[in-house]
Amino acid sequence: MKNTFICLIVLCAIQNVFAQADHVKLEPDETYIINMRKGMMGVEYIDPFLDYNGSHYYNDWTYGEIFLTNGEKITGLYLRYEGYLDQLLWLREDFIPCVLCKACITGFNLVDISNNIAASFIIKKGIRLPFENDSADCFFQTLVNGEYSFYAYRKVGRLRDALKLVDDTRYYIFNNDQYEKTKLRTRDLLNVSFIDKTRMKSIIKSNKIRLRDNEQEFIRAISIYNK
Q1: Distances in whole angstroms, Cα of residue 167 to Cα of each of 11, 32, 57, 159
Q2: In the chain, how many H helices and how many E strands?
Q3: Is 0.70 surpassed by the pTM of this model?
Q4: Contact residues for 183 (Cβ-Cβ < 8 A; gap 6+)
Q5: Distance of alpha carbon 211 from alpha carbon 187, whole angstroms
Q6: What is the pLDDT of residue 72?
Q7: Residue 209 phi/psi, 5° resolution?
Q8: Rounded distance, CA 87 to CA 138, Å?
Q9: What DSSP character marks residue 134?
Q10: Given its phi and psi angles, is residue 54 left (phi above 0), alpha (psi -120 to 50 degrees) or beta?
Q11: How far is CA 177 from the centre of its chain?
Q12: Sign of the CA dihedral 125, 126, 132, 134?
């Protein structure tokens, strides 16, 4: 009951973020302090790339909802995904961005002005990443959901010799507990070990699908394969 009450407070506060622009609170609001103590709302986010060209954000501040590990859902938040650190940010009532605790979240949705889901992200645990010694828990955007699921890891990279951020999106195909990293190319898709190469070739040919560097066509191929 207490958790539900706190969630309602958060909802009411965030829904009034932009409507109350002339009455901004400068001190931390009570809801923020309560949730920070619970370990969910994290700490204030300081942008480390203000002097860089390019963007490390997937989206502008967008209305959305988060799903917690305890089964609860909180709606009415303004959310932003940060791709360099792979973190989810929320906008406090006083317009201060904060980092949400990744360990407390199973996923989140971004909602458009028509109240439709514009993007859906889930936490994938124990993902093996290139050039990393250990596995990591990552936010993956769901592009196709089914027996064969297709995800995008919206990673942003930094060029070492220039103040520039670059898109380093990585793609993964899952089938139950097995998964493989792939690129947006026909050869890479056909080399996925749990994909029937003959059947996928037939789908690509009969539907005139052009996969190279084309995310939407890749989505189409996997979606047809799931039927």
Answers
A1: 32, 32, 10, 11
A2: 5, 12
A3: yes
A4: 171
A5: 9
A6: 87
A7: -90, 130
A8: 9
A9: S
A10: left
A11: 20
A12: positive
**DSSP character at residue 224:** H
Are 91 and 29 in contact by the 8 Å Cβ rule? The answer is: no
* Parallel, antiparallel or unpaired: strands 148-153 and 136-144: antiparallel
- Answer for the pair 109, 117: CB distance below 8 angstroms, yes or no: yes
DSSP class per residue in 75-138: EEEEEEEETTTTEEEEE-TTS-EEE--GGGEEEEEEE-TTS-EEEEEEEEEEE--TT-SS-EEE
Residue 128: the pLDDT is 81
Give the span between the Cα atoms of 169 and 209, in whole angstroms: 21
Rounded Cα–Cα distance for residues 40 and 37 (Å): 8
**Could you give the CA distance from residue 42 to residue 61 in angstroms, rounded to a whole number?**
18
Q: How far apart are CA 7 and CA 120, in angstroms?
A: 21
Structure tokens that stand for 31 in this block? 């809801």
**Structure-derived torsion over alpha carbons of residues 182, 186, 191, 196, reported in degrees to the nearest 10:** 110
Q: Contact, 181 vs 174, CB < 8 A?
A: no
User: What mean pLDDT do residues 121-146 have?
Assistant: 87
Residue in 126, 140, 194, 136 with CA at minimum distance from that of residue 169 = 140
Q: Is the pLDDT of residue 24 over 70?
A: no
Q: Which amino acid is at 222?
A: I
Is the Cβ–Cβ distance between 13 and 123 less than 8 Å?
A: no
Distance from C-alpha of 181 to C-alpha of 169, rounded to nearest angstrom: 11
Entry field: residues in the chain: 227
The per-residue pLDDT for 25 is 33
Two structure tokens written together for 191: 């080399």
Give the whole-angstrom CA distance, residue 105 versus residue 88. Answer: 10
> pLDDT for 213-226, tens place per residue?
999 999 999 999 99
- Paired tokens of 113: 């002005």
